[in-house]
Design brief:
globular
Length: 186
């Protein structure tokens, strides 16, 4: 039934798939009907397992769906996640998965912000490392008593010749310790 609907008009898709929205596709720079999926996986060194996921809508979508499902059903609870922030959803996922023992939390650079890092540190177990690529924005960190942005920090480390080489990947990298809001980053 959905396959025949997808061949039909746009209005048909919105009527049959509740909560669907226009999602930006970065591969061809166009908007398409769909959801964004946020998945949480557990990796034990050999296998990756999906342990939780959520669907997210962008922009305008039919909120009538949420009212129809009610707030007490499982579908109603999931429908609330359509409009919820992804960072809020991640925190909720971590709270639901307290029984997993993890050594590190790995996320895309899109999630890297000092405020989200502080929230993660409150929820994750002590000693758990957070691995994210820092955003190249105007966020200031303290390095050797000086307030500096990531872009300028990379330029400074390059000038100091403080790079290390990884033979396996034939790359050079910098390693240093920086501080923001009394949280130490490496």
């Amino acid at each position: 039934e959905i396959a025949s609907c997808l061949v039909g008009s746009e209005m048909c898709i919105r009527d049959r798939i509740k909560g669907i929205s226009h999602i930006h596709d970065h591969t061809d720079n166009r908007y398409k009907h769909g959801f964004k999926m946020l998945g949480m996986m557990y990796f034990n060194g050999f296998y990756s397992h999906f342990v939780d996921f959520s669907l997210h809508a962008e922009g305008k979508w039919c909120s009538k769906f949420r009212r129809l499902m009610g707030g007490f059903t499982a579908a109603g609870q999931r429908s609330k996640e359509l409009s919820q922030s992804k960072t809020v959803t991640i925190i909720q996922m971590l709270k639901r998965l307290r029984h997993f023992e993890v050594d590190y939390f790995l996320a895309d650079s899109w999630f890297c912000s000092p405020s989200f890092t502080e929230e993660l540190l409150e929820v994750l177990p002590k000693g758990c490392h957070i691995l994210m690529h820092a955003k190249m924005n105007n966020t200031k960190y303290f390095y050797k008593g000086q307030e500096i942005g990531i872009k300028n920090l990379l330029l400074k480390l390059n000038r100091e010749g403080d790079s290390k080489r990884c033979k396996e990947y034939n790359t050079y990298y910098f390693s240093c310790t920086i501080i923001r809001n009394e949280i130490t980053y490496k």
